[in-house]
Structure formats: C-alpha cells, structure tokens
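SAMPLE LOG
Freezer: B-3
Tube label: C17
Construct: single chain, 400 aa
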Amino acid sequence: MNPLSIRVAVDVGSTRHRVAIGLPDGKLLDEFDIDHNAVGFGEFFSHIETIEHRHHLPVAVAMESYNGWARPLDGHILRHGYSLYSVNNLKLARYKEIFPAPAKTDAIDARRILELFRLSEHLPLAKDALHEVAPTPVANDQLKRLTRRRKQLVWERVRILNRLQSDLHAVCPGLLTITGEAGNLWFLNFLTCRDKLPKLAKLRQSSLLAIRGVGKLYAARIQAWQPQAQFAPEFEWVGEMIQQDARRILALGEDIKAMDQKIADISVLSELAQSIGSIPGFGQTTMAEIAGEIGTLERFETESGLAIYTGMAPLDNSSGKKNSTKAPRQVNTRAKAAMMVAVARHIECVPASRAYYDRKRAEGKKHNQAIRALGRQLVRVIWSLVKQGRKYEIREENSK
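STRUCTURE (predicted):
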C-alpha cells in the first residue's frame, strides 16, 4: 500500500453506502452517502476526483464485500485505476472489539475503516483486515459467473427430478421400474410424448420406437409395463404437473449443455484454466470453476494463502501440549468443492498420487482428510505451473 495516498473508506449497505475520505495523516476530508445506482456511483467518483486533483495523490479505496453488495462499484473502482482493498469483516469485527467506538452507525463504521488504513503499516491486526484486490482477467470473471450459473441450473434440475420421482411413485406405481434413473433422456421423452399419462399405457411399438432415445430394449420394457399399468385417482391434476416437470428437466438439460459449451470456449482464453486443466482428473467443469473462483494468483502473496482459500489447508490450533488444527473461515466453498471432486478423480489417473492417498489412509486419516492432504500438494503444483507458465507432466520413475 502506498503510504502517500488518499484513503477512501466505503461502508457497504444494500441500497446506500457511506463514504469517508481522508489523508494518510488521519485528517478527514469528506463524508457523504451514495445510492447504489449509476447516479450514486457518479457522485462517488466526482467527490474523489475533486480531492485527487487538489492534493495530487494516488487513490486507495477500502470497502466491505458483504453479500456481494460491493458489486458493481468495485469493478468501476478498478477500471478507474484506483487501488482497491477488500475489508475482512471478521477481522474488522475483531478490531472493533479491541478498539470499541461509542456507538455503531454507518458513519462511524466508515471512519473505522479509515483507521484501519492508517494503522495497517503499524498494527498487524489492521494489516490483516485489508486485502488488496487484484484485477482479474475477463475470461476468469466470465468463468466465475458461468460456472456459478451452471451449478444453480444443476441444483434446480436435481430438485425438480426428486419431485418428479416422488409424484410418479404416488400417481403411477411401477412406472419407474422400467428405468434405472428418472432423469434418463429417453424416459423423459416418453413421459412427454402424449398430453395425458394414461395414454402412455396404450402406445404401440411403432409409436414407442418413434420416441427419441427409445430403442427396442426400452420399448420392450415399456410394453411389459403397459398391461399392469395403474394410475391413482389424483392423476387428473398431478399428471399434468409430472409432465410439466419432465419438460422443465429436458429444458434444463439443454441449458446446461449450452452452458458447458460456453464454458469450454472461454476456458481456452484463460491461462489459469488451461494450467489447471492440464492436471489429470481436473475436467472441463472443475478446472473452470477453480479458475473462476481464484480469478488471479496475484491475490495471494504465497501459495499457502491459495491453499487456505481453496480449503486445502487447515489452520494451526495448537496450545500447550495440544497439537491440533481447525478449519479456516476464509474459504471459498465453491472452489473447495471443485477441488475435492477434481482431486478424487486425480488419484484414479496418477499412480504416484494414488500411492500418496493410500499412505495417508494407512496413517489413519479419513477419506476427505486424505483428499485434502493430496489437494494441498496439488495447490503447490498449480502455483508452480502458473508462475512458470508450464503444463502438468507425469514423470515416470526410472525402472531399476
């Protein structure tokens, strides 16, 4: 952080933000509120630019990121060329406990963030509460949005599929026995090929074979079910819901497929995604998720910070004769979930990694603990690959 810079503190709210501007010596220059809209953002930069021209100093902005209310103001700040710092809310709360204020208001909170700026060069607690936000490549920003959207679509599909299966059990017992999975494409096409469920029990073989995905094998299963087909009385109104859910699941499948293609196209433009994707087991979706959530390695001073962020490294929690660890709170749960999936697949691809995993299990670690231990090693690999601009290589041991 440049010690000679105009300090701007933003106490973020849902619809309005409190802004305080000061000098490095602690002098308060201006305080005002802005609305969370284009007009408010214009006022924000207008105030700063007036002070910037008067003092001829660079600008550093610190703001909270609670619940995503900092967007899109944080992006505008970076595009203006200002230094941006994210305020760790947990560390800020700890700071307020140690140095309490006479009251709690948005104005007081904004001034406390200015205090963190001023004390960050001298007080470790204040320094740890501020994290510089590095600009991320556009491709990684796009991957972050797309992979999050994809996961939401997947969750929606799972939720509707569970409801569909429950309704089918209640309305038409036995229908699910013809398929191992209600989400199978051919089965969903079968459910929606007629406007009423009872008509499915009267379809001829030629009509069944005309349904997309239904071949002779599935047609035979359907024909075996038809003579014993039963429908509960509520099918009159529930049947329509079942078919609506089936159509929605089909539509979500198409949306997810289209999203996968977009993710694949953008991943090619991301150096971080390509480096991660070169590791065996890190597939198209997981590499895009991890790259999108990380954004850029410039956010982290060391690879240990990246390991904590991705949930692959615990924090030391030792005291006296007690040696233990605890899970960190500053974990990106999406990146952690993607890492856990990718590492579990990785051990099936690389014998050396499988041996490392087996060794950890032999030491008494549970499956997830062993996966995280291996994930910790792979974070070092990712860090090295990106920093050196290389791709992953499997080196075979020389036979003796």
